[in-house]
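In the current project phase, the collection of sequences with tokenised folds has grown. A representative record is quoted in full directly below:
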Amino acid sequence: MKLQDILAPIADDMRRVDATIRARLRSEVAMINEIGAHIISAGGKRLRPALVLLSARALGCTTQEPILHAATIEFIHTATLLHDDVVDESNLRRGLKTANAIWGNAGAVLSGDFVYSRSFQMMVDSGRMEVMRVMADTTNAIAEGEVLQLLNCGDADVDEARYLRVIELKTARLFEGGCRLGAIAAEQPRAYQDRMGRYGHHLGIAFQLIDDLLDYLGDPAVSGKNLGTDLAEGKPTLPLIRAMQVGTPEQAALIRAAITKGDIERLEDVLAVVESTGAIPYTRALAERHSREAIQALSEIPESPYKNALVDLAHFSIARAS
């Protein structure tokens, strides 16, 4: 199933979110407007705002409040991407030049700061302390995850637990936060906020596991990034960690050297080791487990097209090609 079909129940809401994003990105500073236009034109799945909307609608919310929360989540995600591309020295995202490649690192970082601060202005506009608390905790966790990932880069001794901790903080917490905002907008008690939070958390882990797997399996024409990008940045992701764990000493040494040096000259050899050691099905199986746990978290949510879309998103997260 295509993502567009899954999100059909909130198509009108998503258009309102896009309009809100465009309006709130406006600034008196020309560079910010240029970078904002570049960000919007780059597109993206808009998964995080979709989770806010679907969670709210699945729990009976009929107001426009989730629109603001959804735009806020996307702003936070956008700011992290602007900063990530600078840290990773990336020149391409989704097949297009990154903001730092066009406007330089300083322009990208400072524009990211603007987007971050604008998101907090929008949280204040919601008038809900609960929203502020959830998103303050979420952004703090994301920052921790970014620092942990930086510390892990080039470190071939990173184990599965350390790797999973990074993706819990860096990816899953924002998915979780979006789902919690949806439950808050629906005026649901803490128990339902926690259920939706668990769904988002497990969905985020499944999504990132597959994202990391696509670095060794994906089609660059579809994913918008070249194979081995994570390896070139020295990131020890689960396919590599598992291959080192179960491979021969020679295979482990090959991968260790590639991680330590951020070296993709022997990418084909690394890909062969990842495949021969079963690291690919191992990573996929863990993603599938988290997808199932995400769906299980929805067991007490009333049946509706919105709940069905959330279930379909869990399946999509592990079946996607980009």
Remarks:
- The mean pLDDT is 91.
- The first helix runs from residue 3 to 6.
- The two ends are 14 Å apart (CA to CA).
